[in-house]
Amino acid sequence: MKLAVFSLVTGAALLLTGCANFHSMSATHPLPPACLDTCQRLEVPPSKYILTVNIAEQSVSLFEDGKFVKKMSASTSRFGIGQVQDSNCTPLGLHCIAEKIGDGQPPGTVFKERKVVGHTSQPEFAKGKITTRIMWLQGLEPGLNQGGNVDTHARTIYIHGTGDQKSLGAPASHGCVHLADDDLISMFNLLPSGTLVWIAEK
Questions:
Q1: Per-residue pLDDT tens digits for 93-103
Q2: Helices (H), ranges, 30-156
Q3: Phi/psi of residue 163, each to 5°?
């Protein structure tokens, strides 16, 4: 009986500790106010899930109903931040996932112009630049990342995999956002088209 009571007390303590840690993590990783302010300004309702890209940290965070869920290592452009066509830079601002490509393909699948062309297990594709899954982004801020020569979708800015997984955590892309295969596939499966993506310097 004493052992059972001890187990219940210990279990309750662990549960409370876990809840406290979760709330502490949510408090220290809030959804960026600038993201919510931009949604309000553009009259865009926040989606159930929101991805935030922190360029300074080279990370992507997942939020559900405004609460922090997890952080993932990422890579943005090695050419820096920028909005303009052919700059090879990562654009800032509010975006959404416009299209999802590659469902069901094995990790390491290599794409060119969104078509399957090989696999990283093949020597000629070992360093494939666009792999595994593609989530094609669309800018939602006219003049910043939508329209003219600053249009994120026309620039074919994606969240996608890379044949060089060791580069994650440092700027390495040509404008897109790279994720590890496991993270990318789980996000691809979880997030519907229309999910908001906030890209910021910090």
A1: 999 999 999 99
A2: 33-42
A3: -70, -15
Tell me the CA distances in angstroms from 51 to 31, 33, 55, 161, 191, one per residue in order: 9, 14, 13, 16, 9
State residue 19's pLDDT score.
Answer: 42
- Distances in Å between the Cα of 61 and the Cα atoms of 53, 124, 140, 169 are 7, 33, 19, 13
The owner of tokens 């997030």 is 191
CA distances from 105 to 74, 102, 111 (A): 21, 6, 11
For residue 9, pLDDT over 90 is answered with no
pLDDT band at 29 (very low <50, low <70, confident <90, very high): confident
- 46-82: burial string, b at 16+ Cβ within 10 Å, e else: ebebbbbbbbeebbbbbbeeeebbebbbbbbbeeebe
Q: How far apart are CA 66 and CA 78, in angstroms?
A: 30
| Residue % of the chain over a pLDDT of 70 | 87
At 26, the pLDDT band (50, 70, 90 cuts) reads low
Domain locations along the chain: 1-30, 31-200
Residue labelled with tokens 């405004």 = 66
Q: Which CATH superfamily hosts domain 31-200?
A: L,D-transpeptidase catalytic domain-like (2.40.440.10)
Show the beta-strand stretches assigned E in the chain.
49-54, 59-64, 67-75, 93-101, 109-112, 115-119, 131-139, 158-161, 177-179, 196-200
